[in-house]
Amino acid sequence: MEKNVLPARKSRYFDRWWILVAAVVLLILLLVFLIPKPYKDILLFVRNGIWTTIYITIISFLLVLVFGLLVALARLSKSMVVKGVSTVYVEVVRGIPMMVQLIFWYFAFPALIQNIGDALNIYSFREYNAEAISMAILGLTFGYSAYMSEVYRAGIQSISKGQMEAARSLGMNYFQAMRHVILPQAVRVILPPVGNEFITLLKDSSLVSVVAVADMTRRGREYQAAHFIPIQTWIMIALLYLVMTLLAARLVTYLERRSRMER
């Protein structure tokens, strides 16, 4: 006798951490509407800095994904020169604090270009001036690419060598095998640490306030200096950063779930 087999119900998943996101957003709204002086004023004052923070974080992270992959592939290269140079880059950059790197790119790098212009009599180099947001993105990209390259390298090396050998036996060259076989599998493995790198980059974007970028942290410092209310100012800034990091974490969790379901 054949038994009727009922189709399995799809389990509905609810990420309970959305409750925390909603609670933080609700707290911000309560502060803004119930105590508009000063919380609404703070929010209006720093709103341009919020968009600057988001812009710098997204652009930097997209560049980090690209350059981090290139550095990872260089570290896996069979060329001793390419592997050595990329390894030195990773070790040196990871050993220097991010704030020091940002200060170098904004203050020291332009001076270096100007000195080269003086030595070679190149007018465009002599008159070079750093643009704050561009230098901030360059500094974050240069620094975080070293960390991201290690994430990529660990993911690629976690894939069995037999996968590469099978791809090469099918007539693929090294780059085709990487693109179509190795990297798609590695991306699923490294998705959680990549998400963590994005959240860390979002928080470290506050460091660009030291190089004349009017991000959310710098705007908060300006408001505090003008009104002398540090407690309320930094409560609002902290809550705004918390909302952004929680939303980023929820996005990473969603992508992880999608990746597991596609396997």
Describe the fold and architecture:
By secondary structure, the chain is mainly alpha-helical. It has one domain: MetI-like (MetI-like fold), CATH 1.10.3720.10. Helix content is 80%, strand content 0%. α2 runs antiparallel to α3, α2 crosses α10 and α8 runs antiparallel to α10. The mean pLDDT is 89.
Summarize the SSE layout with pairings.
Blueprint lengths: L16 H18 L1 H40 L4 H15 L3 H23 L2 H4 L5 H26 L3 H9 L4 H31 L11 H12 L2 H33 L1
Tell me how many strands there are.
0
Unreliable spans are none
Give the biggest beta sheet.
none
Number of domains: 1
**H and E order:** HHHHHHHHHH
| Class per helix and strand makeup | mainly alpha
Structural key phrases:
263 residues; MetI-like fold; mainly alpha; 10 helices
Briefly characterize the structure.
The protein has 263 residues and is mainly alpha-helical. Helix content is 80%, strand content 0%. The protein is built from 10 helices and no strands.
